[in-house]
Write a structure and sequence with these properties.
By secondary structure, the chain is an alpha/beta fold. It has helices at 31-35, 44-56, 74-84, 111-123, 157-173, 187-196, 215-222, 243-255, 286-293, 300-311, and strands at residues 4-6, 9-11, 18-23, 59-64, 87-89, 91-93, 145-149, 177-180, 204-207, 227-230, 259-261. The protein has a single domain (4-311), classed as Metal-dependent hydrolases (TIM Barrel), CATH 3.20.20.140. Helix 2 packs across helix 3 (74-84) and helix 4 (111-123) runs parallel beside helix 5. The chain has a 6-stranded parallel beta sheet. It binds zinc ion (ZN). Residues 22, 24, 65, 264, 266 line the site of zinc ion (ZN).
């Protein structure tokens, strides 16, 4: 029996309901927020207000995407999920190098040690201290996703080691994989490396690829079998055409089983409850009517229900 692992426990894929695929619900004080104070998202009241609005508009699940030692707070995530009734999937894994100090454990530990930290987050529970060390105190709240991130440059040895640790964890536990790409660059290389390492590409999703508006490139990546996540629908500003909409128009008819969407609203100025815009309900309101106007309304269910349910379910490859 397959399942989806949320911060409050395992649920059936069908119970996910309408799902956003790349969110930042909680970003607590961390090295990343010291560098980027605009990232800070730890005001329980405001987060619950925004998520209740999402729920009222029909939203039911969010995939939160801050990985290990980058602002996770499993207890706060659990509290927010309970208060808002929104299912939260919280990841393990690692973000871009720029979000960690130079002597971070990611550079000190070997592949097996990092794999074990990831596996324990998935199977036992996320560390209360978010692997900030030196002690680990596991909560009952388990990770339901594993993340890695690459930039615009070819992968270096350290990044390749992280890929192996992520795929080891994925194969051993069945946890699905989500990546960060920098403006869609290196997406094809990510897909090919996951394939070589033996990942199940039906459970791998590459994020932010719509920032590279090149349909032929998207086709090449989609033809490997991975899923793509688009999250810039609200970012394009006049007079520029909406690149995300161009891609959806071109690609949805052929690849509707491989495209999911989110907001990636990692700055509190995008949240209504923090006084910002457009608010996390954008995809349920403005975007939904835009999709209808483009004649793509029939794909709404796939983007937000069917594809996420399969993608985020656990599928174990080895025991
Ligand atoms: Zn993100």
């Amino acid at each position: 029996m397959t399942f989806v692992r949320t911060i409050l426990g395992d649920i059936s894929p069908e119970s996910m309901g309408l799902t956003y695929s790349h969110e930042h619900v909680v970003i607590d004080n961390s090295y990343a927020t010291e560098l980027n104070p605009g990232f800070l998202l730890n005001d329980e009241t405001r987060i619950v207000v925004e998520l209740r609005e999402f729920y009222k508009n029909g939203g039911r699940s969010m995939v939160d995407t801050m990985p290990a030692n980058c602002g996770r707070n499993p207890l706060l995530s659990a509290t927010i999920s309970k208060a808002s009734q929104v299912h939260l999937i919280v990841p393990t894994g690692l973000h871009l190098e720029q979000y960690y100090p130079v002597r971070h454990w990611r550079y000190q530990l070997n592949e097996d040690q990092i794999t074990q930290l990831f596996i324990d987050d998935v199977q036992i529970g996320i560390d209360r201290f978010d692997y900030n060390g030196p002690l680990v105190k596991r909560t009952e709240h388990r990770a339901g996703l594993i993340k890695l991130a690459t930039g615009k440059a070819p992968f270096n040895q350290h990044q390749e080691m992280i890929f192996r640790a992520v795929v080891n964890t994925h194969r051993h536990t069945g946890v699905p994989i989500l990546t960060h790409t920098e403006f869609g660059e290196m997406a094809l290389e990510q897909a090919k490396l996951f394939d070589r390492l033996g990942a199940d590409l039906n459970h791998v999703v590459l994020s932010h690829v719509d920032r590279k508006v090149d349909p032929d490139y998207h086709r090449q990546v989609l033809d490997t079998g991975v899923r793509l996540e688009y999250d810039s629908a609200f970012r394009w500003k006049d007079p520029n055409p909406n690149g995300t909409y161009q891609l959806l128009k071109t690609l949805l008819p052929q690849y509707s089983n491989q495209i999911v969407m989110g907001m990636d609203a990692a700055r509190n100025r995008y949240w209504r409850s923090y006084g910002g815009l457009p608010g996390l309900s954008f995809l349920l309101t403005d975007f939904k009517s835009d999709l209808d106007h483009m004649g793509l309304g029939e794909y709404y269910q796939k983007i937000f229900y069917q594809v996420p349910q399969k993608l985020y379910s656990f599928q174990r490859i080895e025991s």
